UniProtKB/TrEMBL annotation, chains A, B, C, D:
<dbReference type="Pfam" id="PF00156">
    <property type="entry name" value="Pribosyltran"/>
</dbReference>
<keyword id="KW-0460">Magnesium</keyword>
<keyword id="KW-0479">Metal-binding</keyword>
<comment type="similarity">
    <text>In the C-terminal section; belongs to the purine/pyrimidine phosphoribosyltransferase family.</text>
</comment>
<keyword id="KW-0658">Purine biosynthesis</keyword>
<dbReference type="InterPro" id="IPR029055">
    <property type="entry name" value="Ntn_hydrolases_N"/>
</dbReference>
<dbReference type="GO" id="GO:0004044">
    <property type="term" value="F:amidophosphoribosyltransferase activity"/>
</dbReference>
<feature type="binding site">
    <location>
        <position position="358"/>
    </location>
    <ligand>
        <name>Mg(2+)</name>
    </ligand>
</feature>
<keyword id="KW-0328">Glycosyltransferase</keyword>
<dbReference type="InterPro" id="IPR035584">
    <property type="entry name" value="PurF_N"/>
</dbReference>
<keyword id="KW-0315">Glutamine amidotransferase</keyword>
<protein>
    <recommendedName>
        <fullName>Amidophosphoribosyltransferase</fullName>
        <ecNumber>2.4.2.14</ecNumber>
    </recommendedName>
</protein>
<dbReference type="InterPro" id="IPR029057">
    <property type="entry name" value="PRTase-like"/>
</dbReference>
<keyword id="KW-0808">Transferase</keyword>
<dbReference type="Pfam" id="PF13537">
    <property type="entry name" value="GATase_7"/>
</dbReference>
<feature type="binding site">
    <location>
        <position position="357"/>
    </location>
    <ligand>
        <name>Mg(2+)</name>
    </ligand>
</feature>
<comment type="pathway">
    <text>Purine metabolism; IMP biosynthesis via de novo pathway; N(1)-(5-phospho-D-ribosyl)glycinamide from 5-phospho-alpha-D-ribose 1-diphosphate: step 1/2.</text>
</comment>
Length: 477, 477, 477, 477
């Protein structure tokens, strides 16, 4: 299911290049492959023989770079770029990244994917010491920290600053003479290093972006690492040793592109295994398996394979449903006008449908899809969710900071089933999820963060601790 | 595969409403479901108590109606709309439909899907008689004919004019007091009549648009029919009795949306049967079946089911690949930068792949995809096309008027296989196609037009006869 | 005073070039000098080795040609252009000129300044004979007439058509091999022929446009003339001998640029003489003379010189008052917020002001200016209009087709004075106007059309005769 | 002459309101009257019950507020606004003012007219102390100073900061509970306080903006003053006692609108007196006096009155010459194509012309105008400049920081006359200028800054001292 149907949003994608004369173009194509990670703003900063210049704007990458000139102006052999999902209250142009800071004697550009848990307290401290913040982003906090440290080199100041910030983060930092990539101590967000045939280095949020530019995968950036890339090659350093792998499980469930591989696990195959595991945990009596396009198709395929029930294309997604300024009025909605999904009556009429969705957030879309299938003639609709119930907020970079809108945090399983209107409802277990992803780590939960499901956060909550609210109902399943 | 990858284009979609106070809004949502039939222009004309006003523009529907005001201005209980694919030489705003003609004492709006085969000779005759044409479209020819007939009523003049034009056409015509739908004597293009719960009538190029507005399907418009819809209901008339069903088979193969049903046959299921038939005609030794997203997924599913070879998601289409103004430079293309499709290495590496595509036009995309799969590690790629070789031009509304770019018109099967780089190449037979679609008509080819495959055109070619060129090679398969 | 303050509008300006390799650029700069004749649309059609292509749009010339590319695309050695004032009901893009007609075997572009008096009856006749009109302009009528004549050459058909149309018109017509300029039998609208140093010919609505491109003035086009310009030079023909000079006197009073010369009379100097004559007809006891910027400054200068009262800059016009989308609300207007004109308090405080305006249309602006001056401290304001009272509609190309909004058609002089709030009010006499312009013609009114002042129209009114309404009050002065 | 012809630019206009429910609308209309002070950016920040929100953009005010919604969104009873001229290297959107600073617990908006002479050294110091600057403007320097002071109240920190900055400045500062207006110790830039009929207070760069909103003038802000306006009325304080009046004389000569009054002197009348004084200092044998439109018309009027030579409209300025994207090519310029000014041949032919211009910067425009008049037939052209030769850079807010482009800094009077092509050339003396403006102050030069003419700067040059270059030639006159 797309983020347009769900209120569940990844907060960004980053991409960087060092050592190719068409660095900005490569960054453009790399970001294009990461567009699913953020559609509300994009930008690229290029290093033109030591001088940084950038272009950024609101909207899709293709809207920001709507004239070839804009990209062509960004010459130079290094660049970083960013695609952004804008959280409430930070949707202005001033928050679009990379942020480019011009000092009298040097420049720094930063691009960030993630969310800091101590940003507010750091910002308050910095303001009391005279700092002026221009935008609302966590990114600016890091720049202020770097600027105020006394250490002689930029790298030392950067490492000291990375130790001060908490939460989930994957940073790309471009200066006149180097590109830095830094990951938080838990590795919440994915970040991969690759190399082009001509020797240039590439860093990207997902490996699909490496593939897009034909870069060879070298390694995942590891928790607590900072990699410096410059004309001498790349050098990996640990800025902290207090690390513990806790990759965001939602990357596997929903966010990442199926062709990406994270810590050795291909996302599409992980989803297929989630579907297979779901079939084992929750067999249903159905005639056909239908997946919600596009993100649930892998899981639906897995469910079909494991259950032996044939997979059918019972739902069609309108390929042109992005960017609609006009929505049906209340009267037309009641009359049944729909824009994004259609049920294929010829496929589902008279059938018992096993409907596979990757996750369940507010439940409104599920209710809508179940009705769609029933109006198209489905005799039964069994909703099977290929991940556990989302019951806790995320503070590391996914926009579920509030549990009031999470259906599973507020209703019991029978209440949810009734509200959705499905004939049955079931979720994958946390253990099943962990097995399906199969991350091969000795860290807790095999190296996954499953806090949204069970509230077991791998770090202290810092600024968020005071307002944290547990789910209103006990465990759902 | 999308039209962005293929140079194969449908020439339009039409939608009309009579009797609903939100006629223009319904038309907007109806057209939205038909957007795949034309992305280069859109327009809506509404009947506001007898006065027609319109809004139209270049680009996607959402680009034309980029402010709710533009749609809100189109009040009234009847409307027609159009989405357009612009052929070379007719891409200007003046060709965007519906065309609205303002006479001193009346108004007429026309929307057209199809292509006339005697438009040039009619236009030449009309100009010699003093007519001035504003645009290049066939639609304007019909208006001039209507205007110059002497019969007392508009309907009589319209019927007489319909008898003069030849080729493939589905017209919607809106006047101050009626909505007319007219189909050519062969029914080349689909056109369906439906009814809303409140009694309003709806006409659309495909049934998926009826579903989108929750209209109940009443009937397909039949070859040679003209339907008049007004405040007294609808009335079906034959403007000619010399009819013979020849539905465009490419509608089933590629153009129509999978959830549409044409003359009783669901498109998705027809495609599944094409895939099944293809499996019977051309079994291959493969580990996995992979379909080219999105249009070949139904056929791939059918091939997998019939062959027993598992279906896998080996190719991913970037959902944001529409509307890109920036393409990789030659150097980057050679370096392997790609924007629209990615192969999932984890799925295809080391595998023998049965690659299913719905059709083959120029062959360049097939070559590209085969290389993509091989670079991702596929050990063998067998390309299986779920339709026969395209060898002849179409004159009834599909943009294949020139055979020079049709691979199968110029190369033998072994030459094609070599050029594409596949380990084997096979096409569905014409007989297999006809069986798979299974249209249940007693007309030749069971009521399908298969002229692009075998050159057997169901009508004379008129203006096109003089320049017609047969394929350069003998039958491919 | 600008047309933004008055509801009095000229209906267009035309410009054409034959024989210069930068014909479209020259047309651009020529039209720029004619922008005051129409601000709501502009266009240029160029002849590129026999093929005509154009670019046009809504708004100012600089808005239509907002990218150098648009102009650069119009290569070729001949071009015609048009700036347009859009009358009610004809403001759409389809009415922007030049109109370019594409026939199967030839092309014609037309640009028109003026208004036909028999357009409606011609259009009705043509439609009954099967013609389809695309837009509302009179220009299209001429094209239909040309197209339907049987004469063998284009020029013969054009001349026959010119004899059929009535009213005021100045046409430029571009074909693949010639540029035609044609003027109505009364010469209502100005049109001048000039020559560039390189021998190329130029035709323009006003001589100021010839000056702008450094063209030497050759001659005014005379009533009933058609001039053909081609690679052999220019050739003047009379298409009719029934002519009588009746130049629009409003061109001298208000429309034309002060640096233009019409039939030998410089506009600025004519206005100065109007001011001098006004001083002789209506001396007032005043301390200073103030003109309404910008169009009344010449007349004010003349009044000051003849009366001996010093001219002072008592009113300032905001140079940025064009194109404002935001107007003061009712409350702010009442509070005194004003955008376009300011009174210079230091100049007018305590002074008796002789306020000179070129003409008086609805009177609302005069009332506004009188109040402005009094609020700035003027002790008396005597409003002196340098032209006679506007009491009759114009049918030859000025937008005063309705007398309901003409103050002098509905109120007596004392009523007008009271409503405006001036201490006295006086107008120039018709005889004084004729003397001041001093056109040196033996035709009635020395060759001027003064019908707006006295109702003595130099031609029959044709289509307008039926609805013609005389002024409601008897002669004003 | 407009700034489009001269390379001489004022650097901004400011406007503020406290106490009117339509504060942003009033600010819009006030800025509209100040648009001549800056055309490259505009913005408004409104105080909506203590919360500040703003809208800003590049271009004219009417381009920034191109939809009424944008202004309507700025509700609240206080607002400040800014129109900006962008100096080289600071043309980005991030420099458009008012700058709005969002702190965790408060907000501040600043708008600035002027130029600081110690901005670079302050910025360097601040950065070394960890400050991060977002844009290049001097305005941000003030904010950093305020933020880093330790004093308990905002007002105390503001006053302390004002004492640290040097140069010319007129600041408006808006917080949640007050509007502050502050002027530099020399009063280089004008700033006036007024009051609306409803009691609301208004501050503006020029009194013409007070007139536009019907505000009554209260007083000029005096050098070294800070005025605090809040719900208790206004309160004037001196933040320093080391003051000395040195109003920018170019405000009187060229920048300010003729209807503005600065320190009791009306600008139009001052210019008339400059023209009169010029006639006394430099009588010429001429037939007519012609002023360069629009800014020299007052001086030309004065020259005519004092000399007895009649004033004539010999030059016409195209009213539509703003915002042209297309300029004549080299070939067309040589061919005589001109866009902005036209000479009225009928007026100047055969005449000896006394041409009055307000000032002379690079001389290229003067050369152009002299040629224009001669080509139109003028027998002699005597160029008389109603101000002294510009020979020194300005560091207080006018964009003449470089003397290389100042004609009078590089050539002697005879050289200038030759280069311009005039028959004679003369300038007003510095003493004559001071007499004509007649500012009635006991400060040096009667309270005017005349440093651009004689190099006698009223303050130290600080950061500019090191690179200061004197004129290359000795005194011109």
């Amino acid at each position: 299911m797309t983020s347009e149907l769900k209120s569940l949003n990844e907060e960004c994608g980053v991409f960087g290049v060092w050592g190719d004369s068409q660095a900005a173009e490569l960054t453009y194509f790399g970001l294009h492959a990461l567009q699913h990670r953020g559609q509300e703003g994009a930008g690229i900063v290029a290093n033109q023989q030591g001088h940084l210049t950038g272009e950024l704007g609101l909207g899709l990458l293709t809207e920001v770079f709507d004239q070839p000139d804009k990209l062509a102006a960004l010459t130079g052999a290094a660049a970083i770029g960013h695609v952004r999902y804008a959280t409430a209250g930070s949707s202005g142009i001033e928050n679009i990244q990379p942020l480019l800071f011009n000092f009298t004697d040097h420049q720094v550009a930063l691009a960030h994917n993630g969310n800091l848990t101590n940003a507010v307290s750091l910002r308050t401290e910095l303001e009391q010491a005279g700092a002026i913040f221009h935008a609302n982003s966590d990114t600016e906090v890091l720049m202020h920290l770097i600027q105020r440290h006394a250490a002689p080199t930029f790298k030392q100041r950067l490492k000291a600053s990375l130790r001060q910030i908490k939460g989930g983060f994957a940073y790309l930092i471009l200066t006149s003479d180097a590109l830095y990539a830094a990951l938080d101590p838990n590795g919440f967000r994915p970040l991969a290093l690759g190399q082009l045939p001509n020797g240039a280095y590439v860093v990207a949020s997902e490996t699909c972006a490496l593939d897009t530019v034909s870069a060879k995968f070298i390694r995942d950036v590891q928790p607590g690492e900072m990699i410096q890339i410059d004309d001498n090659g790349y050098q990996v350093e640990k800025y902290t040793t207090e690390t513990q792998l806790s990759v965001c499980s939602m990357e596997f469930i929903y966010f990442a592109r199926p062709d990406s591989t994270i810590y050795g696990v291909n996302v599409h195959q992980a989803r297929e295994r989630m579907g297979q595991q779901l079939a084992r945990e929750h067999p249903v009596d159905a005639d056909i398996v239908v997946g919600v396009p596009n993100s649930s198709l892998s899981a639906a395929n897995g469910y079909a394979a494991a259950s032996g029930i044939p997979y059918e294309m019972g739902l069609i997604k309108n390929q042109y449903s992005q960017r609609t300024f006009i929505q049906p009025t209340q009267r037309l909605r009641e009359q049944g006008v729909r824009m994004k999904l259609s049920a294929v009556s010829a496929v589902v009429a008279g059938k018992k449908v096993a409907l596979i969705d990757d996750s369940l957030v507010r439940g409104t879309t599920s209710n809508y899809i179940v009705r769609l299938l029933k109006e198209a003639g489905a005799s039964e609709v069994h909703l099977l969710i290929a991940s556990p119930p989302l019951r806790y907020p995320c503070f590391y970079g996914i926009d579920i900071e509030n549990t009031r809108e999470l259906m599973a945090a507020n209703l019991t399983l029978p209440q949810m089933k009734t509200k959705i209107g499905a004939d049955s409802l079931a979720f994958l277990s946390v253990a099943g999820l962990i097995d399906a992803i199969d991350l091969q780590s000795t860290a807790p939960y095999s190296g996954l963060c499953v806090a949204y499901f069970n509230g077991d956060y791998p770090t202290p909550l810092y600024d968020y601790a005071a307002t944290f609210e547990p789910p209103r109902v006990l465990a759902t399943t």
